[in-house]
């Protein structure tokens, strides 16, 4: 293995001026601050969560339940758990539980305080791990409302922080529903509901909600007891127990070869094709990938579904991380959570025995920025006392400005931070328990039609290649992995059902708006309509608004779209080229210039609008264009037009698959 060069630390000479200013400021702060104010956390073995039966009932307890798809709610929950442990010390039991593993029927009525951190997905739906709990609690509410059950949560206090994005029609629908459900079941709110908006700064929203929560807890000391005396709260860092195995031990597969029906049960599918969709003239890349699912006969998808996949870090990243950990790539080990094997809510480590190279490839998110607890964990193992102090400062409230300048603004990755603090060499147990978050699966809108390709899932993936402020080139973990794949390679995938579906009635008009890779599900829709036409079925009008930069660079699937117009699978195709001329031309401009035709279609019974692609800008612009079409063509005021578009959504005729 090539030893990787260690980048200069943030506080060493030879770095950018900004970092030097930060250094002076930091040193000043360190010297002005009493040393005891930035404490060393203690490292605790990761234990499985207690069961209701085992719990020490003499202790006040708080349960934090999270519903997450991409890990934010889990991260916030762990962060909050640590804050509560710091505040209340050993006298209070704080437990963070994946809501999927929570036995609600048995445990919820016995809770003293339960905090829900719940993300919203799909079109106002719960995350996959919260789906069962959500439908259970909705049924309970129905039973209470119908008088079948009493309001049986009257002794329970609760708090809700919803995670969502204002871009979506049903902003924080799940958080809101959790609040009304707990209220309907008789529980008492501890503080206001927090509505985290991922479109803005969800970390700040969470921090504000935590401030309110802690103030409410201070005002009700009977609930969790008094806060621990200053300095006695336990600052715990979770670490797995590590069992090092003899070199060459037989390794388990990082994922079992499952059914492919959920994120917990992925299927190792074979990649059958990878091809570039941009021309050689383009400075970006977008790949068409075909994934063969014929090995799993029960695995089915529907047109418009998503495929989830577990990508892997590149070999360079893996090798670099092994160097930073000071371990050979071939290190063979197994992680254990204490109490493993017993029943209960076990926060399971990944399967073992495993080689370090595989563990780093599939399970360590090292390119995202590290959060506070990761910095504390690094500090706990830094052998250089100065580095340890600096890391603790970055993790502390006093070091918020330094965190912003050195980490957040620079988009500095965990790997870069470890390069900057080379004396921090965590054990594998601490690294996987408290430092590197688990690499989240990535989702793609399936770009094939199930009728045409029942055993092959197509993906249309824009390859991420960003230059970060530190100068680091960030190659997107999953997209660059897909780009590197060769036919015959295997990848763990699973199908995620979506509500983004063509209308049942094939005559119903559809308007599809999908620039860039937003075209993906519409390619599937077009293939579906193509199959209907081949079966001699009648299809209604279908209009596609597609956008790209330049016909000569990134007009993906051009020949297929032309053929679709020819066959009638598409009745109209409007293409916006944003960089072909002096004026930026986008899909929303074409919607407006074709406003009369769009409006006419929308007057037909059940006609649907579909939007797919970029959530941050495009979906907003398209939404505004739709309102403007309604206002101009329907002779409405802007507020009437807004209400009209809202009704379109409420009646299930305006669908978004945006990310
Ligand atoms: C339901 C759904 C459907 C989707 N469908 C498609 C589709 O059909 N086609 C498609 O191309 N994509 C689709 N996506 C997006 C896709 O899931 C991935 O998000 C995308 O491919 C990028 O993943 P990545 O791992 O390559 O990039 P990542 O490595 O996750 O990087 C993503 C972004 O994070 C930034 N970043 C990385 N590290 C840091 C840091 N330390 N600090 C700050 N920023 C950082 C990067 O610059 C980059 O902009 C979909 C997403 C969802 C949720
Ligand atoms: C495909 C998709 C659908 C989403 N749907 C909604 C939605 O309907 N309402 C909402 O408020 N937020 C929605 N969001 C935003 C997420 O809830 C938000 O990004 C949240 O921070 C994710 O939390 P997590 O990382 O814990 O899963 C959606 C995000 C994606 C990617």
TrEMBL record:
Known EC number: 1.6.2.4
Bilayer-crossing regions: 12-32
SUPFAM superfamilies for the chain: Ferredoxin reductase-like, C-terminal NADP-linked domain, Flavoproteins, Riboflavin synthase domain-like
Keyword NADP: yes
Cofactor: FMN; FAD
The entry's keywords: FAD, Flavoprotein, FMN, Membrane, NADP, Oxidoreductase, Transmembrane, Transmembrane helix
Gene Ontology cellular component annotations, sorted alphabetically: cytosol
Domain annotation Flavodoxin-like: ranges: 62-214
UniProt-recorded name of the protein: NADPH--hemoprotein reductase
């Amino acid at each position: 293995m090539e030893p990787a060069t260690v980048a200069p630390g943030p506080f060493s000479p030879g770095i950018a001026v900004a970092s030097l200013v930060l250094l002076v400021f930091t040193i000043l702060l360190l010297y002005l601050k009493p040393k005891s104010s930035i404490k060393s956390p203690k490292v605790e073995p990761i234990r499985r969560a207690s069961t209701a039966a085992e719990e020490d009932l003499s202790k006040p307890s708080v349960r934090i339940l999270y519903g997450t798809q991409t890990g934010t709610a889990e991260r916030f929950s762990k962060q909050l758990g640590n804050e509560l442990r710091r505040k209340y010390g050993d006298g209070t039991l704080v437990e963070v539980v994946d809501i999927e593993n929570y036995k609600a029927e048995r445990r919820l009525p016995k809770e003293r305080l339960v905090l829900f951190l719940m993300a919203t997905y799909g079109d106002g739906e719960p995350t996959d791990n919260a789906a069962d709990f959500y439908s259970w609690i909705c049924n309970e509410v129905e039973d209470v409302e119908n008088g079948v059950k009493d309001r049986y949560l009257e002794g329970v206090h609760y708090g809700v922080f919803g995670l969502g994005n204002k871009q979506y029609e049903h902003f924080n629908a799940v958080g809101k529903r959790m609040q009304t459900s707990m209220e309907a079941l008789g529980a008492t709110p501890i503080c206001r509901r927090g509505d985290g908006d991922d479109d803005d700064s969800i970390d700040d929203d969470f921090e504000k909600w935590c401030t309110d929560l802690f103030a409410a807890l201070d005002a009700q000391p009977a609930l969790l007891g008094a806060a621990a005396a200053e300095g006695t709260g336990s600052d715990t860092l979770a670490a797995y127990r590590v069992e090092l195995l003899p070199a060459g031990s037989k390794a388990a597969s990082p994922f079992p070869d499952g059914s492919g029906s959920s994120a917990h049960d992925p299927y190792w599918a074979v990649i059958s094709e990878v091809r570039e969709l941009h021309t050689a003239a383009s400075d970006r890349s977008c790949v068409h990938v075909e994934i063969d699912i014929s090995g799993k006969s029960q695995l089915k998808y529907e047109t418009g579904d998503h495929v989830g996949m577990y990508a892997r870090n590149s070999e360079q990243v893996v090798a670099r991380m092994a160097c930073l950990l000071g371990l050979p790539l071939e290190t063979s080990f197994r992680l254990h959570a204490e109490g493993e094997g017993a029943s209960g809510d076990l926060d399971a480590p990944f399967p073992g025995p495993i080689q370090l190279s595989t563990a780093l490839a599939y399970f360590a998110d090292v390119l995202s920025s590290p959060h506070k607890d990761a910095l504390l964990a690094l500090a706990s193992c830094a052998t250089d006392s100065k580095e340890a102090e600096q890391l603790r400062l970055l993790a502390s409230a006093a070091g918020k400005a330094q965190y912003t300048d050195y980490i957040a603004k620079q988009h500095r990755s965990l790997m870069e931070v470890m390069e900057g603090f080379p004396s921090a060499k965590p054990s594998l147990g601490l690294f996987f328990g408290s430092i590197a978050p688990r690499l989240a699966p990535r989702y793609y809108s399936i770009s094939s039609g199930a009728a045409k390709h029942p055993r092959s899932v197509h993906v249309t993936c824009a390859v991420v290649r960003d230059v970060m402020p530190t100068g680091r080139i960030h190659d997107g973990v999953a997209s660059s992995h897909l780009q590197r794949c060769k036919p015959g390679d295997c990848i763990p995938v699973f199908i995620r059902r979506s509500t983004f579906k063509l209308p049942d009635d094939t005559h119903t008009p559809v308007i599809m708006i999908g620039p860039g890779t937003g075209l993906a599900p519409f390619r599937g829709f077009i293939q579906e309509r193509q199959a209907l036409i081949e079966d001699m079925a009648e299809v209604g009008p279908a209009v596609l608004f597609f956008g790209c930069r330049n016909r000569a660079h990134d007009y993906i699937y051009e020949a297929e779209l032309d053929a679709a117009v020819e066959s009638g699978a598409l009745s109209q195709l409007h293409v916006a080229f944003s960089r072909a001329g002096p004026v930026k031309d986008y899909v929303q401009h074409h919607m407006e210039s074709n406003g009369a035709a769009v409006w006419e279609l929308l007057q037909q019974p059940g006609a649907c609008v579909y939007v797919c692609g970029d959530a941050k800008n495009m979906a907003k612009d398209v939404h505004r264009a739709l309102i403007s079409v309604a206002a101009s063509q329907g002779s409405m005021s802007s507020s009437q037009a807004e209400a009209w578009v809202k009704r379109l959504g409420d009646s299930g005729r305006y669908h978004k698959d945006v990310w």
